[in-house]
Amino acid sequence: MPASAAGEGEERFLTRPLSVLLDFARFGAALLVVAGHSVQLHLYTGPFPFSGRLQHYCVIVFFVLSGLVISTSVLGGRSSLARYTLARVSRIVPVAVPALVFAALAAYVLAGPMHVRIDNSPDDPLLFAERILPPLAFVSAWPGMPAPVWNPPYWSLCYEVWYYAIFALAWFLRGWARALALIVACFTAGGAILLLMPVWLIGVALTHVPPARRLPLSVAPILLAASIFGAFALFEVDREVLNPLLRKVWFADPKWSAWAFSDFAMGLVMAAAAIALRPLAGLFERAIMATKPLAHGLAGFSFTLYLFHWPLIQLMRSWGLEAGASVPAFATLLVLVVALCALISILTERQTLHLRRWMEARFLKLRAKSPGSGAVAV
Questions:
Q1: Which of 17, 164, 191, 254 could connect to 258 by a Cys-Cys bridge, CB 3.0–4.6 Å?
Q2: DSSP 95-153
Q3: Could you report the per-residue pLDDT of 51-89, keeping only the tens digit for each?
Q4: Cβ distance 339 to 31 under 8 Å?
Q5: Which spans in 173-219 are helix H?
Q6: Dihedral angle at the C-alpha atoms of 82, 83, 86, 88, nearest 10 degrees?
């Protein structure tokens, strides 16, 4: 995929004001996941207007946004496979590894007197290793591999890392090397992960489809309203119509891709909303850009919020901290989870840039010094 095919010389899909709005969307989706899991884990037992499908579809929003951001980041021909890899590693590792370690500590060490040992939390060291090593290697979606039992939301990362890798091979390699590498990577990733990859590629497509950048302003409110209606309508047909279809054509274990058809529909809804928001964001650019610091600050710890909230909720319950049916108490505990994750992000997401600079200074410098190396500048 040459850079010219990605719209070089044209305005990119991801404009500055749209990026701000999508930062708010990223944080909002993470917050809804936290709220949904608080109900699922009985931190709050009062009335709640959504089912467990809400937090799942929020992950689909993350997938579309991820594909869009990753695809945008390599436009213009200023990146390289080495720089791309270091950027992804420095983004994932500072949050993923601490999240898994913290979740294990929450299950074994930090839990309070009301704690009930989580299923599949063995005392045998070998069995413990079997539970924690697959998610650390992002292979929990492989057949026979255990789920990340102490931090279930981590499943999406076991998908997304493979999407990063497959996309990089397709973008940066050429000829037979690309074809062979893609075959090996797709085979290694496995069918369950590939089932949901079209959802992630919807975000990639937004950067390459010119009509997505040319929606008339007069049509934008109509499309936005239609996308909102489509999201609500999907809840009426996914479980009865779309989801059973997969079971008729896919006989292997789908892992977390059991809703692949409805997930793809939600991905299209999210893409339609982004297309509609683009011209509207341009119309209100000045007001939107004034909120950029807030949007950047909230999005800046949304990854930590997503990966740390589950063990935090478990810890609260183990120490007897629950909201019951009280809405004010529920709101207070949600604020507490968000605040704790914002503090944790100082040690996780906020270290991404430092780690990336260190890795680039060390590894790209060594690569540049090696004989025959030809590092490509970003």
A1: 254
A2: HHHHHHHHHHHHHHTS--TT--PPTT--SSHHHHHHHHHHHHTT-TTSTTPPP-TT-GG
A3: 888 999 999 999 999 999 999 999 877 789 999 999 999
A4: no
A5: 175-189, 191-206
A6: -110
